[in-house]
Structures are given as structure tokens and as C-alpha cells.
Amino acid sequence: MLQVAGFLDNSTVNGKGLRSVLFVSGCKHNCIGCHNKDMQNFNYGDKVSLDYIFNRIQHNVPLISGVTFSGGEPFEQAEQLTILAKKIKDEDLNLWCYTGYTYEEILRSNDKHKLNLLKHIDVLIDGKFNKSLKEDVPKYVGSTNQRIINVKESLKSEKIIIL
Ligand code: SF4
């Protein structure tokens, strides 16, 4: 089961192309100017089964090109989201994920669930939101410190490859 704050069947603003977006509940980053403050609460929203979410995603195929995990902090529910991520990849959908952790923090975490989730993600938008850096932001990020990372290429080359 996942603690879910919201779900969008079709969105064009949470990653490239038309995408379904899953917002999970719970986040400890406490960014100043957080735009999803309600979703910081780990009890916000509803407990939802992975099967229900996956069926919702499948309903949007072939309209969507991918799925985005957002929140809240997806990496706080990494074990459950990895199961869902595998199913999404088996559907040939690309997977984007927003996180308040940096790519380096996830790699250094030594948390097997976080590392497993990372391996299933195609594109990671990383780092805490910084409201003093929100002018002139590129598409899909909230503040200019955040990066749009090609995860597969970054893991392969052991350096960060920006999309
Ligand atoms: S990571 Fe996102 S949800 Fe968490 S505090 Fe920062 S802006 Fe809010």
C-alpha cells in the first residue's frame, strides 16, 4: 500500500510529453516556500493499493508516454514505489521522479530501497526547492538549483549527465 496525496491521469507540466502523475504523501525536507505543504504530512491523503494505481496508469495507455512520481517525497516510500516502477517499465513507459534529495545524497545513502528505486527511474529532478532561485527556471523544475538528470546514463558513466 502507498500513502497517496493525489493522481493526475494526464498532465503536460510534470515532465516531457503527456504523463500520468502520482503524488505520494510525506516529506521531511521542509523546503522554505514548499508548494505542497499539505503533502509533507505522512498521513495526508489515502492508503491506496499498488494494483489500483497501476490499473489507473494502464487506463491511460497508449495516450501517455510516461509516468511521473512526485510528492511529497517519493524516496520515503521507495520500497513500494520500486514495485510500481518495475511494472511501469514493463509497460514500456518512461519514468520521471521528483525528489528533494540530490542524486549524490541518494547514491551515498546506502539505503537499498532508495538505490533500487533510483535504478528504475529514467529522469530524476533532484534537490530541495529554493524559493530564492525560482526566477527564470527551465521547464519542469521549481528552482534553478534543481537538475534534470538522465539517470541511466549517469549511473553508467559514474558522473551526472543532465538531460
Ligand atoms: S521536497 Fe517538495 S514536498 Fe518536500 S518540502 Fe520540498 S517542496 Fe515540499
Automatic annotation (TrEMBL):
CDD domains: Radical_SAM. Keywords: 4Fe-4S, Iron, Iron-sulfur, Metal-binding, Oxidoreductase, S-adenosyl-L-methionine. Its EC number is 1.97.1.-. Its cofactor is [4Fe-4S] cluster. It comes from the Bacteria. It catalyses: glycyl-[protein] + reduced [flavodoxin] + S-adenosyl-L-methionine = glycin-2-yl radical-[protein] + semiquinone [flavodoxin] + 5'-deoxyadenosine + L-methionine + H(+). Gene3D superfamilies: Aldolase class I. InterPro entries: Aldolase_TIM, NrdG, Organic_radical-activating, Radical_activat_CS, rSAM, rSAM_sf. Belongs to the organic radical-activating enzymes family. Activation of anaerobic ribonucleoside-triphosphate reductase under anaerobic conditions by generation of an organic free radical, using S-adenosylmethionine and reduced flavodoxin as cosubstrates to produce 5'-deoxy-adenosine. This is Anaerobic ribonucleoside-triphosphate reductase-activating protein.
